[in-house]
Amino acid sequence: MMKFKSAGAAIVCMCTLASCSAQILKDLEKTAGDVMQVEKPLTEGEVASGLKEALEVGAKNSTNLVSKLDGFNKNTKIRIPFPPEAAKMEEKLRAIGMGDQVDEFVVTLNRAAEEASKKATPIFVDAIKQMSITDAMGILKGSNNAATQYLQDKTTGSLHEAFKPVVHEATQSVNLTKYWSPLISAYNKIPMVEKMNPDLDQYITQKATDGLFLMIADEEAKIRTDPMARVTDLLKRVFANK
User: Fold this and answer.
1) Residues 24 and 129 grouped into a single domain
2) Distance between CA atoms of 96 and 219, rounded to whole angstroms?
3) Which terminus of the chain is more solvent-facing, meaning fewer CB atoms within 10 Å of its CB: N or C?
């Protein structure tokens, strides 16, 4: 009888050990799986790709936003006003009953900027493609608008070149525009007055690019600080610890 009890105990013990061993193996497998699932650190090349994605997303979103109807005209952050240096001229024009014409003129300034901004996307994309790994690492460690500053440095000249013909065509459609240069020139001949810039096309072009980069900077800040704005897996990884 004792032999049967001993045999039974041995069997129970063996089953218990087998069960424990099986659980240990499962735990080891899970641990190994967890280790395998840990993401490897991003390479510098992956960081560069992520930043290019971020910049392209921000640039395209901003360009689409400002180039639509009223993208400039009804956005108080970037709306182009009557040239500030010509405030006295604006005041006199309104005083003689030309307020509606002045308002129409200001709308046209913004329409010109909206139309010109449609030229921006391919210029931005080309500059982004040329970003080096060194550029990317500097941007990653930089301020919340470091990528925007990079884009501004690389594209401002090309943007001005592309925008000016569009701006010029748009401003010629308003009768007040043809009086702009003569009025400015006449005003500048008055003794003791601060000189003004008669190049209206340059004024609009500069304001258009300034407004566009302001919107890109806003998009960049969102991507850096708001996880919901990171629309790809790579963006999420690049900015996860930022």
Assistant:
1) no
2) 43
3) N
